[in-house]
Amino acid sequence: MILASVQFYNIVFRGFAPFISTKFEAVLTILKDLDLKGDECVYELGSGKAGFLRAVEQRFGNKKLTGVEYSFFPYILAKIQIALSGSSIKIIRKDMFKVNLKEADILYCFLSPEMMIKLEKKFKTECRPGTLVISYHFKLPNSEPERILKENNDNIYFYRI
Ligand SMILES: C[S@@+](CC[C@H](N)C(=O)[O-])C[C@H]1O[C@@H](n2cnc3c(N)ncnc32)[C@H](O)[C@@H]1O
């Protein structure tokens, strides 16, 4: 009950994104576009079940994979799936705005317009130049995307910080 109330407050009053997974087809579209060496440090911000990270791990074998998820239910689901599959993905239960992103090479997000406004400032002050931000559905309000992929009617934005 307390957890649900906190979640309700965060979604309604703080503009935090609810727990909805990226469509599998969209993840496949992104993977087809990426050419990773396997040593990149990849974050999924608001990782939910960490579907993007699990797909990257399977396809490219990356070891530095971190999901950041503040909500208990998706956090536990992801931890169980990761443990059962013997994956090396790390999931941190934390508000993403309190996580330093300076080590990231790639950041994946599927969040909300409100969160993209705040994240844009964080990316610009914290991330190294050249960091790739991939955002499903939602734009960074003041940045020009390097490219946009389409999956059905959904846009996937690629930004270079
Ligand atoms: C739309 S879901 C996306 C889940 C997953 N990344 C995917 O694409 O399948 C957004 C997730 O972000 C989480 N989230 C929202 N605000 C957050 C915050 N400030 N810090 C960490 N996680 C957050 C939510 O709990 C939810 O699981």
Descriptive key words:
161 residues, alpha/beta, Rossmann fold, seven-stranded mixed beta sheet, binds S-adenosylmethionine
Question: Could you say which overall geometry the principal axes of the C-alpha atoms support?
Answer: globular
Biggest sheet layout = 7 strands, mixed
Number of domains: 1
| The CATH superfamily title | Vaccinia Virus protein VP39
What percentage of residues falls in helices of 4 or more residues?
A: 25-40%
Give a structural overview.
The chain has 161 residues and is α/β, with parallel strands linked by helices. The protein has a single domain, classed as 3-Layer(aba) Sandwich (Rossmann fold), CATH 3.40.50.150. Helix content is 38%, strand content 20%. The protein has a seven-stranded mixed beta sheet with strand order 3-2-1-4-5-7-6, with helices on one face. 34% of the residues are buried. The model has no long low-confidence stretch (mean pLDDT 94). S-adenosylmethionine is lined by residues 16-17, 19-22, 44, 46-48, 51-52, 68-71, 74, 95-97, 110-111.
